[in-house]
Design a protein that fits this description.
Helix content is 52%, strand content 17%. The protein is built from 19 helices and 14 strands. The chain has helices at 24-41, 49-71, 78-90, 107-123, 134-146, 163-182, 186-205, 221-229, 232-240, 252-270, 276-292, 294-300, 313-319, 323-351, 367-373, 395-400, 402-422, 425-428, 434-450, and strands at 3-9, 12-18, 74-75, 91-93, 125-126, 129-130, 151-153, 209-210, 219-220, 384-386, 453-469, 476-491, 497-513, 520-527. The strands form five sheets. Strands 10-11-12-13-14 form a five-stranded mixed sheet. Strands 1-2-3 form a three-stranded mixed sheet. It has a two-stranded antiparallel ribbon with strand order 4-7. β12 (476-491) and β13 (497-513) form a beta hairpin. α3 (78-90) packs parallel to α5, α13 crosses α14 and α15 packs across α17 (402-422).
Length: 529
């Protein structure tokens, strides 16, 4: 229970209500603040202390003011501070670097999102109580309105399994289990996780992939499934957002059904998405949708009565009041479960269809590619050095293939030359993707207009393998910081050589895999940093 004191100002005395140490909200806050601290110390979270405080303080001030206006008392804003800390835990400013804990850029975005999230609790109500989890609905609206170019959700994947991440898992799982068990909501949390695990398993088996800022290529299959179901962000969602006692149905059965519905909704909203940004927004939005439907759960699955398990007269007459009724209930549950799996499977296949298939514009690598690629001598390439700071869930596979990846780069560059010589954009699509494809197609257009075209043959002296973040949520690219000599040859409209010159170069060549294709595409060539 809360403890009460008084604050005297002049001749007036105002009650001051402080939380009890037994308040579950304080326990949730302890978990969330612990994760914030770990994020700053060891997990490399791309969020600053001023940004976190902006969200928490804004929510606290608004709640204190509104509560004082309603009650004339100063009440400790426990729920509001949870809303602010929850917003700050998930929200990120796009491009925010790690390692700058006191940076103030973007603090206003955190304050506005936190404040608006809290206000939904007072503005959007049903029968005297708020409908949505404030931090959940506020985050979803922020991501949809501001978009991936301005804000991002916290990554599904937090990094390699080091002591910092192990500690984070322990805090989330132990703290979440204790809190939800005390509130009799542990079964609800586990139901959601199991439903999501089954749904994402079906989705992964159907061939679904997504791009992510921490992955070198599309995240597919087993990697996709593990990323979602073991994500610390998902655990935080199910322990501390889904199980908000104020925004879930009242009945035990209704809560289980609600958790299943959110799990199914998460799967179906993730299914059509091809980026981690959209997948995370889909997962968060599933709770918004089901919270809006909460009155239906309360109406059709009301809180259980003491005689709820007894069969009605008709069923009792058919099966009796003992073992037969239990068998009937068991059979009904099995049938409902089987039907649910079938519906979920069909829904996953239908909803996920837009996210499957070959990469846009990718042409099959055929004879033309092989002919140009054969002009590269693998022994002419230097040994690849690898950036020691490169980290990713699939980094070992990439390191083992570093020399082959360098050969792929050299071959792709020669295929680009062939496409320019023949004026064939379909050849470009077999080796280029994204911005690089657009750039090379523009060069083809210019060559056709001017009657002159320049190709470049690269001789590499050094190759340093690192990473480069591409566009927002487009994923990491494998980048070769390369030096060497480039032979530039210019041809006229008849295909005759006009000029040839050798120039030194130092450039960053970026490659990545595209959705639905195992090949590595050139996606960018930029000046070396």
């Amino acid at each position: 229970m809360a403890t009460s004191r008084a604050l005297t100002v002049g001749q007036r005395s105002y009650p001051v209500v402080l939380p009890s140490i037994r308040d579950p909200r304080l326990h949730v806050a302890a978990v969330i603040i612990s994760i914030h601290i770990l994020g700053q110390l060891g997990l490399g979270f791309h969020v600053t202390v001023p940004q976190i405080l902006a969200a928490i303080v804004t929510c606290a001030v608004i709640e204190v003011a509104l509560t004082f206006r309603q009650t004339g008392a100063f009440v400790w804003p426990a729920s509001a501070m949870l809303t602010g800390s929850g917003v700050a835990l998930i929200l990120r400013i796009t491009g925010q670097p790690a390692g700058d804990p006191w940076g103030t850029d973007g603090w206003l975005v955190f304050a506005v999102v936190g404040g608006l999230a809290l206000l939904t609790k007072y503005v959007i109500q049903y029968r005297g109580t708020h409908i949505f989890n404030p931090s959940n609905v506020g985050l979803v609206l922020a991501f949809l309105v501001l978009g991936a170019t301005r804000v991002q959700p916290l990554d599904f994947w937090w990094g390699p399994l080091d002591p910092w991440l192990v500690l984070a898992y322990l805090i989330i799982i132990v703290g979440g289990t204790l809190v939800t068990r005390r509130l009799n909501l542990l079964a609800m949390a586990l139901t959601y996780w199991l439903t999501l695990a089954i749904g994402i398993g079906l989705l992964a088996a159907s061939g679904h992939c997504m791009t992510a800022d921490w992955a070198f290529g599309p995240v597919c299959g087993r990697d996709f499934w593990l990323t979602i179901v073991t994500s610390p962000e998902v655990l935080i969602f199910l322990f501390f957002m889904l199980t908000d006692p104020k925004t879930i149905p009242a009945g035990r059965v209704a809560r289980i059904a609600f958790a299943m519905a959110v799990g199914i909704g998460s799967t179906l909203l993730i299914a059509p998405q091809t980026t981690e940004f959209a997948a995370k927004v889909g997962l968060l939005a599933s709770l918004v949708v089901m919270c809006a439907a909460r009155p239906l759960f309360d109406r059709f699955l009301p809180e259980a009565r003491t005689d709820d398990d007894r069969p009605g007269p008709f069923l009792a007459g058919l099966f009796g009041r003992g073992q037969g009724a239990g068998l009937l209930r068991s059979g009904a549950r099995l049938g409902a479960g089987a039907a649910l799996v079938v519906v979920l499977g069909v829904g996953v296949v239908v909803a996920g269809n837009p996210a499957r298939g070959p990469a846009d514009g990718a042409a099959p690598a055929g004879v033309v590619y092989l002919d140009a690629a054969s002009r590269v001598d693998p022994t002419s390439l230097p040994t690849v050095d690898i950036d020691a700071s490169v980290t990713s869930w699939n980094v070992e596979r990439v390191r083992a293939q570093a020399q082959d990846l360098a050969l792929t780069l050299a071959q792709n560059l020669e295929v680009e030359n062939l496409a320019l010589r023949q004026g064939d954009p379909s050849i470009l699509a077999s080796v280029d993707h994204g911005e690089r494809l657009t750039e090379m197609e523009a060069r083809l257009t210019d060559a056709a207009a001017t009657g002159r075209m320049t190709i470049s043959h690269h001789r590499f002296d050094s190759l340093f393998l690192t990473t480069k973040l591409l566009g927002s949520q487009a994923g990491l690219g494998m980048a070769f910081d390369a030096t060497g000599t480039r032979t530039e040859e210019t041809y006229d409209a008849q295909g005759d050589l006009v000029t040839r010159r050798d120039v030194p170069f130092e450039q960053l060549f970026v490659l990545r895999q595209a959705l639905g294709d195992e090949r590595w595409f050139n996606v960018g060539v930029v000046p070396a940093p």
